[in-house]
């Protein structure tokens, strides 16, 4: 969530050119919390013109995203940075969101930066009188190591709450799907899935007027700021920018990688058909896809699966690929999942991309037609 311009790849070029963007202004909210909503925010950086000095400790993603919008649209752009690293979603949600998701409210503790609604009260609520065009969101790592299943309710409910309180019921909302980090865990792939309301792609029926930047293929294990903070912020901003053009500015632009529309099972193979193609296969084909095998009536949900088998790709067309599911033997393929790892691939080397867009397919876990 919190990563400065001066730390990103391409920082020197961004800072050197910053002062040429005369139609961009930015401000940054001071990191703080409050047990109750406040009317005036504490300010770390007053409204400023960008230059090599003022910009260096501003959000890298926010700046690179806003710069692209200004270059494309030729309109004044105002950027408000309000962020606090290592914080859970419930800290950015008002009490109504927490109650709606049946979460018990935790007592407020000063300087915890994780208190329920504490960051909402101090860093978002004071902005409600402003007219904003949209929001971009880069958060979830803290939830991946905590209440990762709670994200499924909290995220869409929080978005709707923000829209209501900013008086914009269809306010465009962009987010970065979680990048990788050191080591494997259970929660990161689950949060990625829940960030899409368990659909795999946005916008969808639950998350309307929402756009997403897939970031799992931007691995940066050598980052001096921890692998959880990859320095590839230009790529993140570019993917957000493409989504914003379509969702926020009605400029039809391809902004989604391939996503599955059908899975069918026949003998010892599974056929996955994609939309937003044509597709291009890169590397990591031996571990990108996994299947769950069982009896035909054994499992009703992917969470019931206790073991997953890695399967290889047998072949592909422009719109589909075929998986070898022989490891299931006499059992039936129940579910297929893709890129279900904390770090599913090296930089730009995940399995499936759009051949024309170079955008990656996101993670997914889906039932196989004909298995039940």
Word description of this protein:
- With 372 residues, the protein is α+β, with helices and mostly antiparallel strands.
- It contains 8 helices and 16 strands.
- A hairpin with a 2-residue loop joins strand 7 (259-266) and strand 8 (269-275).
- Helix 2 crosses helix 8 (233-247) and helix 6 (151-165) crosses helix 7 (187-195).
- It is globular and about 65 Å long.
Strand order of the largest sheet: 7-8-13-12
Order of helices and strands: HEEHEHHEHHEHEHEEEEEEEEEE
Poorly predicted residue ranges: none
**What Rg, in angstroms, do the CA atoms define?**
21 Å
Give the beta-strand count: 16
Outline: globular
Supply database-style keywords.
8 helices, globular, four-stranded antiparallel beta sheet, alpha+beta, 372 residues, 16 strands
What's the layout of helices and strands?
Layout: H1 11-17, E1 24-29, E2 43-48, H2 60-73, E3 77-81, H3 95-100, H4 118-124, E4 135-137, H5 141-144, H6 151-165, E5 173-176, H7 187-195, E6 210-213, H8 233-247, E7 259-266, E8 269-275, E9 279-281, E10 289-294, E11 309-311, E12 313-316, E13 320-324, E14 332-338, E15 352-354, E16 364-367
Parallel strand pairs: 1-3, 4-5, 5-6
Antiparallel strand pairs: 1-2, 7-8, 8-13, 9-15, 10-11, 10-14, 12-13, 14-16
